[in-house]
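[Automated response] Your request has been received and processed.

Submitted sequence:
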Amino acid sequence: MDALAVATEVTPYITAAVTAYGTAVLTRTTDTAADATVSLGRRIVQRLWRREESREAIEGAVSNLAEVPDDEDFQALLRAHIKRALLDDPALATEIARLLPAAGASFNASGAGAVAVQHNSGIISTGSGADIQR
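Generated structure:
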């Protein structure tokens, strides 16, 4: 598990979550209105934050980034703290890596009734008054 690669991959998700929630991302519960990127970022940062050994560093980096979310230096600082946590805890690195979307997987849905799925074994209907018979 390459800690730098995982840290680099998760930083944009966490940045999106921090931009949406600020420091509340550390303790915020599930928000059904949050998009997938923000939701994943929130889950990742909370998982990192629960690790006692890295809590203070992650919390500080999130606080800095919350003040200026577009600051590349604060994003790099967060990435460095994530990398350190993942290097120190290979099981955590594996756990976080499993949360990430598969390489090359990209889903985007926007607008009323839009749907994006990776796999579906059932019916998806977004139209009003649809008549679905089984």
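Summary generated for your ticket: The CA atoms of residues 1 and 91 lie 9 Å apart. The chain has a mean pLDDT of 80.
If you did not submit this request, please reply to this message.
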